[in-house]
Amino acid sequence: MPATAALEALTWVDACATADIDEEDVIRWDHDGRTFAIYRSPEGDFFCTDGMCTHENVHLAGGLVMDHVIECPKHNATFDYRTGQAKRAPACVNLRTHPVRVEGGRVLVGL
Asked: For the Rieske domain, which residue ranges apply (predicted)?
């Protein structure tokens, strides 16, 4: 299936307002029994990952965001929130990422 068709096949869920997230920040979003983290990059783009650190299941929304990296508040593991890539130990498993689009000042997450 082409990438465009795959994106259209997703269910797009309204997660928050764009104004809810400052640049270089993260918020927690819970939906359908799952926790997600939604980020706003220094360029004003939005990204979404699973909301729990892959190392010890800690909420990432309590962590520090700098540039395109989220640092877990418990053991300082870091991830590139654009790709989910684990960047620093103790995390060695990447985060799952989710597509995001913005419509009418709202952040929508594709699930």
From this structure: 13-109
Q: Strands, E, within 12-63: which ranges?
A: 12-17, 25-31, 34-40, 46-50
Chain segment 14-72, per-residue pLDDT in tens:
999 999 999 999 999 999 999 999 999 999 999 999 999 999 999 999 999 999 999 99
Which structure tokens are listed for 90?
């103790």
pLDDT band with cut points at 50, 70 and 90 for residue 9? confident
Strands of 51-105, DSSP E: 64-66, 69-71, 78-80, 86-88, 97-98, 100-103
Distance CA 92, CA 78 (A): 10
CA 73 to chain centroid, in Å, comes to 15
Full-model pTM: 0.92
Which residue, 104, 45, 40, 31, is CA-closest to 70? 40
Architecture of domain 20-110: 3-layer Sandwich (2.102)
